[in-house]
Each structure stands twice: as structure tokens, then as C-alpha cells.
Amino acid sequence: MIVVGRPDHHDNPRRRQSPARRRLARRWFRAVSAMAAALLLTGCDGPQSVLAPSSEDARLMALLSWWFFGAGALILAVTLGLLVIALSLAWRGGQSRPISFRASMVLVVSGGVVAPALAIVAVTYTGVMIGDETEGADGRSATAPTVEVDGRMWWWEFRYLDKNGAVIAVTANELHLPVGERARLRLTSDNVIHSFWVPNLQGKTDLIPGKDNVLYAQPAVSGVWRGQCAEFCGMQHALMGFVVVAQPRPAYETWLADQAADAAVTSGPGLDAFLNNGCGVCHAIRGTAADGQAGPDLTHLASRATLAAATLPNTRGNLGGWITSTHEVKPGALMPAIAPEPEELQHLLDFLGALK
Amino acid sequence: MTDAAIETEIAVDASGLPRLTPHTHPLWWGVLGAVAIEAAVVANLLTSYFYLMSQSETWPPAGIKPPDPFWATVVLCVLPLSSVTMWWAGRGSDADRKTQLAMGVTASVALASLALVFRWLQFAAFGVRWDEHAYGSILWAITGFHFTHVVSAILGTAVVAVLAWMDYFTSERQLGVVVDTLYWYFVAAVFLPIYLVLYWAPRWL
Amino acid sequence: MNDIDPALDLRARRTDPIHEELAEIERTWLSPPGFFGWFTHVNHTSIGLRFLVTSFAFFLIAGLLGLAMRLQLVTPLNDFLGPETYNQVMTVHGTAMMFLFAIPAVEGVAIYFVPLMIGARDLAFPRLSAFGYYIYLIGGTVFFASLFVGMAPAAGWFNYVPLSGPEYAEGRGVDIWVTMITFIEVSALTAAVELIVSIFKLRAPGMSLNRMPIFVWAALVMAFMIMFAMPSVIVASAMLTMDRLVDTQFFNPDLGGSPLLWQHLFWFFGHPEVYIILVPALGIVTTIVVTFTQRSVFGYTALVLAIVGVGMVSFGLWVHHMYATGLPLLGRSFFQAASSMIAIASGVQIYCWIATMWGARIRFDTPMLFVLGFFAIFVTGGLTGVMVASVPFDRQVHDTYFVVAHFHYVLVGGAVFPLLAGLYYWFPKVTGRMLHERLGKWSCGIAFVGFNLTFFPMHQLGLEGMPRRIYTYLPGLGWDFLNQLATVGAFVLAAGFALTFWNVFRSLRAGDAAPANPWHAPTLEWATTSPPLNCNFAEQIVVRSDQPIWDWERTGRRAVVGGMRIDRRETIVTTLLDARPQSVQILPTPTPWPFYSAVVLSVCFFGLIFSPWFYVAGIFGAFATFVFWFLPRRRSEVI
Fold first, then answer.
1. Domains annotated on chain A, with CATH
2. How far apart are CA A158 and CA A144, in angstroms?
3. Interface touch A135/C473, C-beta < 8 Å
4. How far apart are CA C355 and CA A83, in angstroms?
5. For C577-619, how does the pLDDT look when each residue is reduced to its tens digit (9 = 90+)?
6. What is the pTM of this model?
7. Which of A78, A252, C101, C421 could be a cystine partner for A178, CB 3.0 to 4.6 Å?
8. Are residues C256 and B11, on separate chains, in Cβ contact within 8 Å?
9. CATH, range B24-204
């Protein structure tokens, strides 16, 4: 697809030199159109997108982004435009026509000092204002939830706290929030550094061992979005996702109460299979003898939309696959794969599927 | 380069310029550069000390006391003394007094070795191991860093001392003495900020 | 051409008689030929060329690793590279590009060309440059080798703790990383000190500071930056080694340590590091703009101030890599303002170049085309840089492909393109042959298109939620097409670079013979033969302006230094500001001791991975080799 500029054999010096210029311009044009096409062909919205904000915080950041892109494109066009003009001037007369000292000074001062200075002021001002707005607790109601977000390798534990800091409910990999309220997320880790990021709602903040960080998230509408760990944390960093669900307050409270309750099924062959295969050593199912803390709390596993840190949809088949072929889904995951007898596996899946 | 149209004239006659310039030789600048790098390393270490201090509620941590300053204060006096003997040796070298040079550098080596013995005595009294707490880690790291540099200065100066006793140097041919002296001043002087940070910062701050 | 010693064949025509004095000085400065002779070379041209060749070889390997990464990411849930392999590949790609290619490449250009540009016969400490090279070669080779034996580091190029600490990074991978850092920092620091001293003291008479080529200013600023930035990573890597080797607790928050200490120390080095790479590349751009417009650069003083400004301001920006760590907003805002300020220093340079080029008759040969490519790509990268300087914007795009796009734009645009421009520009001088011009233009065009195709889509990928350092991604997130585009682009980019590699290969044997000054450039490196004489200049030159060669042509006269010995290696020493003659430095002859020292130190650095006793062995071993290195063999050689 590359078109070669054909040498022009006219005597006119301008024409003699233009193949190079045409090549340059053509090259740049091709690159730009390719980029534009790429942009237009793929949408800017999505369940994990900075440019599809679903909260006021994210909306401010998205707005800032668009202004940045517009200004950036303008500055790029002006700078490269001036460059092209600078390069093409001599061709007219064939002589080297230097610019006057004065004109050069104007160019350097306006392009190199004034314009950047304006940019600096704009970036600093908007950065402070929006930073303050998006990282602060302003407007937080008394009923807004507080959730401890604990980053593990490689999944997310969410512990809902009441007003006194006691734990109401524990779940994993799926965070529910009430619409319109500014939830307070306490970010902790006792292993390596992770980063909590749900682009449709908020900027990211790291979970750093030894340093408790706080992040606020306030969904403006109901919806479901995806978040992902955004700080390299080892082998399975790539598949350490989570789901955020924003619901109206009543629905949220129902969900929370359900999560706080003990397991729906607390006996039977499924539970026996669970305990016999050692699952209870790592996983807790409240109301049963399984009380492990190393892995996600499974008390209400069936109420979740995904498995394995938002890697697989939560279906019976996927759950079976995850249990028996863990390391084909996530090589390096700390959960050992188990190989129960087929009948035992069916009981297990029945049991887990009933844990709503 | 062999262009016949350009006339060549000799504008500078280098035959009269000195070749032996121990006090302004480029190597002097080079060692100054090395000193600057080492100083930057010390600055990073001391800043890390303060950073770790700022992240801790108590510093040193509970149950550990700041190190006893007695022997370190002795060293604080011995090292400058060794710099004085080095300076004296340098003066001797500049004046072609070989014995003064040789005795001066030997005295510096002896004094610095003594300082190392005092430091060694003190290690046992630190009261915390490097693996028990970040406080111990940074204390031992900074101490070990300086100790290593005193060792390297002693080794280099020992060679200079041997050569000095062998009448190797003259007032013109003494670049080795000059750069060794420069390095020595640094190693001695850098002990002061280290001493203040390790021994007094936890007491005063 | 092979039947006569090339050092002696300096005549304009084969029928000219050989000038006996010139032949003798060339013998004095001859680098010994042969296999064993290779280990004794100390001439800066020899060492500089080695840095360049080795760095480009490492660039090739690291680039292939990048291609492997793109192959893995071309479709979701691909299994070309599993997570363990991918994490090693991505770590080695980034680490090697930053430490084993970019820095040594710009160092190599400086080591080769600074003495020529300042009219000196060599750098101030030739044995030290040789030592620095061997350290680099050994460290880099072992680092790459670790990948092929599955022992490579896998914690990312900035190696955050606790992931890289003793608890979570098992095996020797991180230790290899830390050791490589030690090698590179020693190599870079030796080069830095040497460049500063040479630039300050070895300039030709008359080359006052304001007559130095801009590239030399850039090399000077780069060297100062190395001196003040590297100690930070020395301390960080030493602390990490100690945590892993002898159980110190620097980064363990349970026992008083702090993971953020690593980040502060690393980024205090890491941010200036990228400007260390950029500043000399910008110097190359100025050089080429001047030559290909045949004009003095506009705003010499402004450019120098801008370069110095970049150097200094870059030390005050490091927290912008830590905007997501939960540090207080007030502190982060300070760094936000400082980070955007670098736009002024960069903007001034860009517009000085545009002013220089305005209305000039430009020679659109390959070096100039790479410079134009630099303009387009680097300005784009600089603009996204100002964007990520903003705290709220960065909190969305930090650690995503947006940042990957940004830094490839500034590094490939701002460093690789100028380096390639420099390659095409200086290849004739170094080898005596011209690179093929048509092949060069194709290489530039294809690389430019391929680069944008690879990295522009990544801006959008980041905005659509794709984080960095992921070995795979799920389908249905809308990332598939852009990743495919990027992978295709990567192969186009590789093809573009491959054309240049092929060009070099081919032209070494079959390229047109190059005259001394094929581009009609004004600076002193073009005032010697192609390749340079062993002694660089038959007679050292006295300069009267910042464009000596053009002056000679205009006035018909040239001034030189007389009275230098031809039977031993000497170069003139001048004063710092005005370059008035001060003394003459006697330089060392070829010796293998830098090589022996490097080997001993390397053994000890690697031994440290396994036992702390190598620290002691290292001190005494290095000391022993240094004694033999410095000890004059005869009384008459004592200085």
C-alpha cells in the first residue's frame, strides 16, 4: 500500500524537490487517517472505560480528558503546521530565506514559553480543583457504606462495615454499592501492592502493605461495571478483575442483608464433598465447619455473576472447570486443582450452586 | 583535512606547557567527581534514614536505645586528626621533603586503622541487629558504608605510603599523593553528617 | 586497501608520499590489532564504537522480545506465552531497553564524538572508559542469558517491592536484575565523570564554553544528571539486595520498613533517567538541523539554558510516577505543577529548531527525515506527557496502555529516531562508508508508519480500561481490534528497523567511500579522516567560533597547536571557561588491566547473589587489580 513519490523531471526547482515533501506529507496523512479510522471503528464506551463515566468523579475526569485531547490535537497541528511551513518556504525562490531575529524570538517565546505556560496553568488549576473534588469526602451522607477492600493474590475481598467498624458481611470479587451515595473504600493489602480501579466510576488508588489508603466511589446511576487490578502484582495480575454493581438503596440493603446471613445450605453430600476435599481449609462458608481465610468467602457464591476474580461467568460448567482445571484457567493461581470423583463433583456443584 | 586552499598557522606552542601538574591534573577533577557521587549516595542514605524515621511511631523502635555516642565521638576526633596528618604529608610532598610525606601518610593510615578498631568495638554495642527492624537495617547499612570507605582509603593510602618510603614521588610527580589526599578528606569529613544523623538525630528529633 | 597498515594510509591519493611525522604519531596512537590486542584498547573511538555496537545488538534482542509480547497480545486469552514467560519477557524487554540499550547508546555516541567535537585526542581517562565498557558487556550479556535459562526477573522493569522482595520473588531473577543495575550504574558513572572532566578540561584552545557544539552541552548535562541520579538507584538496589540476601527490613512494613521507600528512591533516579536518555538525543537533533540547513542554530543560549533547565527540573518530578499511592494531594499537586513545567524547556527547543529551519534550503536526506519523524512523534509524546502530569487524569490512565503509548512516543520518538538519525549522519565518519540513501529513506518511512500504527491505538486501549503488564485479556472488553492493529504495526516497525540493520550490514562492505566531510558540517569531528585518525587530529586545532570548518573555508586560514610530542600520547589541557592552554596531559597506552579489573569485579558482583562474603572479596579483589592498573612500570612514568 505504500506509494512511492515519482521523481519529477521538470526544471522548476520547486517541483524538483517536492517528491520528498509529498512523501512526508503523504506519510503523515496516512498515519493520521489510520489512527482516525481506528478510533472511529471502535467505540469509546464499555463496561471498563474512562470515557463512559457513570459517576460525577469519572465525569469530571472524562471531561478533562476531552479538553486535553482537543488542546493536544490543536497544539500538535499548530506545531507541525509551523514546521511544514518552515520547511517549504525556501522552495519558492530556491534560496535560503532566513527568518529575522525578531520573528524567531516571537516564535520561540510564544511557542516555547507562553503556550506552555498557559498549559501549565490550565493543568495545575484543573488538576487541583478536580483532584480535590474527586478525592474528597464532600457530600458524604451518614448512611453511605464503608467497605474494606483487601487485595489478595489474585482476588479481591470486600468487607462491609457498620457505623462502629464491625464487619457486617464478607464477600469476594463483586462489590455492590447504593446509587447516589459516596461509599468509603478502605484499601489494604498484606502481601504485595495492588491497585483498585473501576474506570467508569473513579480514578485508581493503590493497596500498599503498611499503608491504608482511602478511596471514595459514588455511582450516579444503576449499572454494572468491571474493574481490574492496575498494579503489577505477580503471575495472575492480568486476570485479577472484579465487578461493581450499583443498585438503588432498597435493593442494595436487601443484597447486604442476604450477604450477611449464613449459608443457605449447611448440610448434605455437597458440603461433605467440600470439606473432604480440603476446600474448607481456605474457603469460608458461614454456618458450616468451613472457615478458611486464605481464599474467597463462598457463603453466597451463587449470588455472584462471575468466578475467579471476574474471569469466568458463574455457570455450573465454568465452576466445574475452575475446580478441576484451575491452572488451565489461571496458571500460577494459589488454589490447587482437585480431582473429585464425578459423582462427588456433581454433589459439590449442586451445593455451590445453591449458595445464593 | 589535507586541503591545499587552507593555510595553517601554529597559534599555540605546547612544547612549553607543563606535563606534570599534580594539583590541576584532570584526574584531580575525576576524583572530585567520584567524591560527588559518593556524597550523593550518603545523601540518599541519610534521607532514607529520615524517611523511615518519619514512617515510624517511635524511633528507635520500642526497647531499643540510640547507639552510645562515646566511641563514635572519639572517632569523630581521630578522623580529622588523620586528615591533618595527610595535609601535613601533602605539604611535605610539595616541598620535596620525602620523610615528611612518608611519615604523614603512615600516620594517617595508623590513625584511620585505630578509628576502625574503635568502630568495630562499637558494633557489638549497637543493641539491634540489621535483620530485626528497619532501624537496625539502616543503622548498619550506613555504618557499613562508611566503614568500607575508610577501609578503601586505608588500602589506597597504604600503597602511597609504601611508595613514599621508596622515594617514588617528587614535588612534580605526586599526582597519586594529591588524589589520595583528596579522597581521604572526603572519607573523614563525611563522617560528621553520618555521626550527627545516627547518634544525635534519634535523640534530638 | 588491505596490504598496508590503515593507520599509515593517510594520503589523499595513493601516489602521495607518506608524511613521516604523521605516520609516527599514528603508530603512537595505534590500537593493537588481533584477538588479544582487542582486550587492551583504550582509544575512545574504539571504546565508543563498542558501546554503540553492543547497545544496538541489545536493542535488537529487546525488540524481538517486544515482538513476542505483541504476538501474545494479538488475541484475547492467547497461549503463545504463558504468564510466567510473559512476565519475564516483559520485564527483560523494558529493563534491557532502558538500561542496556538507551543509556549505553547515548553514552557511546558521547564517548565517540565528544572528544572529536572538542578537538581532543582522547577522553581524560581512557582506561576507565574501557573498564566501563567491559562491565557493561559482561552485565548485559549475563542479564540476557538469564532469560534463556529461565532465571530472568519477572517483577517489571521498576521491580516494586514487596513483589520483588524476599517473600514474593523466589529464585534468582530479581537478584540478576539488581546485579545488572549495579553493572550499568558503575559503567554509566565512570562514563559520566569522564565526560565531565574531558569537556571541562580537554577542549581545544579557543573553544570557550559558548563555542561548544550543542551536542557537547547535552553530553555535559547528561553526565551531571547521571552523577546525581544514579546514586539513588544504587542505594535502592543495595537495600533490596540486603533485604534478599541478609534479611534486612528496609521494605518490610511489619518491621519498620516501607514499600514506598523503594518507589521514592527508584523514581528519584527513574525520572531523570528518561531525560538522561532524551537530552543527548536532543543534542543530536540540533547537530543535524544545523548541518542540514547549513545555518547556525537559532538561540544557542536559549538552547543551552533549556537543556540545563531540563536537567535540573527533571530532578523535581519523580512523584508523578506515584500519583496513585495515596500520598497527600497537596504534595502531589506540587509535582503536578513541576512536571508540566518541563514543557517550557522542551517547547523552547522545538521552536528554536523551527526558527533555525525557517526558510532554509533543506537537504532531505535520511538523517533529516529521521529528525522530522522525531518532531512528529516526540511532540505527540510530550503532549501526552503534559496530560499525565495532571493528577486526576493520571489517576485514570496510570498503569494503563495510555502510559505505555506515552513513553514509547517520547522514547522512540525522542531517542530512537534521533539515534537512527545520528547513525545515518555519523556512519560515514566512523566507518569511511556511506549508508545507502534509498534504503535509509524506506527504513525511515516504514518505521514511522509502523510506529504510529503500533502505539497510537494504545492511547485508546488505556482509556478503555486495559492495564499494563497483563499477559492476556478477556474477550468482550472491546480491546481486540486495537490490539491486532498494534501487533501488525509492531511488525511493520520491526521491518523498518530491520531495513536499517540490513543497510548497516551491507554498507560496511559495499557502501560508497565516504569523504572526510560528506555533509559539509561545521564541527570538528568532520576535520579528520573517515574513519578518524588514530590520534584524531594530526595537529590539535585552535578554534575561533562555534563553526570552525565553515570559518576555515571562509577565511582560508586555520590555527593549530604545535609542540606536542609524537612519541607518546598527549592531549592539551585548557582552562574551564575560556579554554586557554594550561598544560598537557600524558595519556596511558593500551593495557589489559581494565579488562582484568572488570572481570574480577563482575565475579564479585555476581557472587554477591549467592554469598555476602563476595562483598569482602570484591573490595580486596578490585583493590588488587587497581594497584596493577595504576602502578607505573618505570620511575620515569610516574606522574
1. 13-135 (no CATH), 269-353 (2.60.40.420)
2. 15
3. no
4. 9
5. 999 999 999 999 999 999 999 999 999 999 988 888 998 898 8
6. 0.93
7. A252
8. no
9. 1.20.120.80
